[in-house]
Amino acid sequence: MKTFDFVVLGSGIAGLSFALKAARTGTVAIVTKRERAESNTSYAQGGVACVTSVEDSFELHVRDTLEAGAGLCDEAVVRKIVTEGPERIRELMALGVHFDERDLEGGERELDLGREGGHSKRRVLHARDATGREIEQSLLRAAELSPNIAILENHMAVDLITTAKLGFATENRCVGVYVLDEVSGIVETFRTDRLVLATGGCGKVYLYTTNPGVATGDGAAMAWRAGVNIANMEFIQFHPTCLYHPMARSFLISEAVRGEGGKLIDRKGREFMGCFHPKGALAPRDIVARAIDAEMKRTGAPCVFLDITHKPADFLRERFPTIHEKCAELGIDIAREPIPVVPAAHYQCGGVMTDADGATSLRGLYAIGEVACTGLHGANRLASNSLLEAVVVAHRAMEHVMRKVPPGGPTNADLVLPEWRSGDALDVDEMVVIYHNWDEIRRLMWDYVGIVRTDKRLQRASTRLGNLLREIQEFYWNFKVNTDILELRNLATVAALIVDCALLRKESRGLHYTLDYPESDNRRWKKNTVMHRF
Ligand SMILES: Cc1cc2nc3c(=O)[nH]c(=O)nc-3n(C[C@H](O)[C@H](O)[C@H](O)COP(=O)(O)OP(=O)(O)OC[C@H]3O[C@@H](n4cnc5c(N)ncnc54)[C@H](O)[C@@H]3O)c2cc1C
C-alpha cells in the first residue's frame, strides 16, 4: 500500500493546477493513464474565456454564461468562477503561460482577445490556436520541478475505496483508490484522505468525437460505482466543426475560425446558417450543430464546409498555424478552399455533482474540470468557459481541503486497505469481444443518443446497453483486468447514465433536443437531472 497526502487522478489543466497548490502542503501522486501530456487540455485550441478588457465586464460574462446555460446554471457558481478568473489567469501567466498579445499605438501591447460564439465581447485569451498545449506544457514543467509531486504515467485508476466498501458503519468517506500499473499489470493500492478526480470527459462514448482516446468517462463511472451523485449527463455538447477527412481522426476546427468571419456553406457554396439563427455562424454551438445535422440530413451530403478564404493567407498562417498545417498535410489550402466539416461529440456538461469548491457528496472526494458538474454550464457550455472553470475550481478545492481536511490534521493512520484480489482470473483471450462491444456502444450512442433524440431511439439504446452491461460485468469478474476491459466497463456505465438522464428529461433544453418534446417546459423541468445510486 502506498500512502500520499493527496492523490490526483488526471494530468490535464484541472489535475495539474490542483497538484501544484497541494504540493506546497504535502506529498502528491498524480496518476495518469497514458503519457503525461495526453489529455483534452492539450488539444484545446480556442482559449480561456476571462474578463481582462476595459470594454468587458463580469456582468456581461455572467449574462452570456447564463444565457448559454438555458436556465440551468447556478448563478452563484457562475459569479464566483467569472470573478475569480483574472486572478487565476495571472497565476498561469506567472507559471510561464504565454497568451498572445497585440501591438497598440505608441508601442504599448495588450492581450489579443478572441471572439467566440455566445460571447457578447472579445474575451478569449489564446496562444495562437494551440492554447491548451501552451497551458499543459507550462503546468507540467512546474509539476516536474516540484519535489513533492510524483507523476505516475501509464497508471489507470480502477475504483475508489470507501469506508462503506470496507464495511464501516460510520459516515462513508473516500480513503483511497486501486490503480492498475499498465506496464506490470499489477493493481496497486493507494491510501489517501484527499482524492481528486480530474479525469476529464467522455467524448469516446460517441463514434465521432473531437476528444483523444483517454476521454472514456472513467471518473464519472468510478464516482457512480462509489455511490456519488451524477447530474445532467444528457447535456453533451457536439462541436459543430470537426474536420471531415478519412485520414484525420478527431481534429477540431476551432470556433475562433467562425469568430474571424468563417462562413458555413453547403457544397454549392450557399450559406445556410442565416435560415436557422440571426447570429448566423456565430449562433450558440448547439444551434449550429443541429443546423449542420439538419442540412446534412436534408441534402444527404456527408459534410458541410467552413469557408475562411476571404482572409489573407498570411493572417491564417499566423492566427491558425495548427489548423493551417493540419489541413495542408491533407491537401486542403484553407486560404483558397473551404474546409469540409461535420459535428462531433466534444464536451460533457454534466458529471460528478459538486459545489463551487469541487466537493462531492462523498467526504474526502473532490471532482474538478470536465468530470465535474459544478453548475457553471447548466444545459449548455459557453465556449472557452471550461478551461476557466478547471483552473478556478482547482484553486477553490485546495482552499476547501485546507479548511476541512488539511494534511497533518487528524487521520486514521492505522487504516490498512485490502489489496486488490484478482483471484485465479485468466488473461483475456477473446479481445475481439471487447473491441466489438466498444464499437457497438459508440455506434449506438451516435445513432440513437446523438444531436437529435426521440424516446423510441433512447429506449432502444437503453435495452442494448442493459445487455452489454451484463455481458461486460461477466467479463470483468472472470478475467484479469486490463485497460481495455476497464475502459469498456466505464464507457458502458457512462453511456447508460447519458441515456437515463436523457430519458428522464421530457422537454428540449440547451444541448438536449428531442423530437417528442421539442419545447422547453420551465414549470416541470427547469432543474438538474440528478442520478442517485441507492
Ligand atoms: C479538441 C478540443 C478543443 C477544445 N478547446 C477548448 C477551448 O478552446 N477552450 C476551453 O475552455 N475548452 C476547450 N476544450 C475543452 C477542454 O479542453 C477540456 O474541458 C479541459 O481541458 C478538461 O480538462 P481536465 O483537466 O478536466 O481533463 P483532461 O485535460 O481531459 O485531463 C484528463 C486526465 O485524466 C487522465 N485520466 C482519465 N481517466 C483516468 C484514469 N482512469 N486513471 C488515470 N488517469 C485518467 C487522462 O489521461 C488525462 O491526463 C476543448 C476540448 C477538445 C477535445
Structure description:
With 534 residues, the protein is α/β, with parallel strands linked by helices. It starts with a strand and ends with a strand. The strands form 6 sheets. It has a 5-stranded parallel β-sheet, covered by helices on one side. Strands 1-12-11-10 form a 4-stranded mixed β-sheet. It has a 4-stranded mixed β-sheet with strand order 21-19-14-22, covered by helices on one side. It is globular. Helix content is 37%, strand content 16%. The protein has helices at 13-22, 40-43, 58-68, 75-94, 131-145, 163-166, 218-225, 256-259, 285-299, 313-319, 321-329, 385-404, 431-448, 455-478, 483-504, 522-525, and strands spanning 2-3, 6-9, 28-31, 48-49, 101-103, 109-111, 113-114, 124-125, 149-152, 155-162, 174-181, 187-191, 195-197, 230-231, 236-243, 263-265, 304-307, 339-348, 351-353, 365-367, 372-373, 530-531. The structure holds flavin-adenine dinucleotide. Flavin-adenine dinucleotide (FAD) is lined by residues 9-15, 31-34, 38-41, 43-48, 131-132, 156-157, 198-200, 210-211, 214-215, 218, 252, 347, 369-371, 384-387, 390.
